[in-house]
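Standup notes
- DV: blocked on the single-chain target, sequence here:
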Amino acid sequence: MKTIMTSFACLAIVTIMVSCGGTSEQKPAAPGTVPAAKPASDDPKANKGIGPVKELTLGELDPAMAAEGEEIFKKMCSACHKPAEKFIGPAPKGILDRRSPEWIMNMILNPEEMVKYDEIAKKLLIEANLAPMANQHLTQEQARAVLEYFRTIK
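- DV (later): unblocked, structure below
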């Protein structure tokens, strides 16, 4: 077991080093993307992240969508995330108290660009000692269902 954990830790460190590029030099945005501007306020919920979701207003909780999102989460996300506790990745419990819905959706849909150019995502990756999130290639509808599930986690 100790050998497995040591191997995993080494793999995580190498992955982080490779994904960070090993330099403090700011890399230009990928074609078709725009690096995030700093939010107008210090409120992290003002940051909408980098990706296709520019505006999202949440209405009343949709139980059917949340149930669909829970199934998607179990299938695509549970290898790295537990609903209420940090695992390989952070727990989604209470995420809407800390981040905007747009930021959450863009993190699900566009994790590579988010950890490269979004200040909050970069900081979380380093400070929380997290592994970079894998892109599960969810559709916007699937990501929205997962977000609706996150609203139910108490």
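- Follow-up: The first helix runs from residue 2 to 20.
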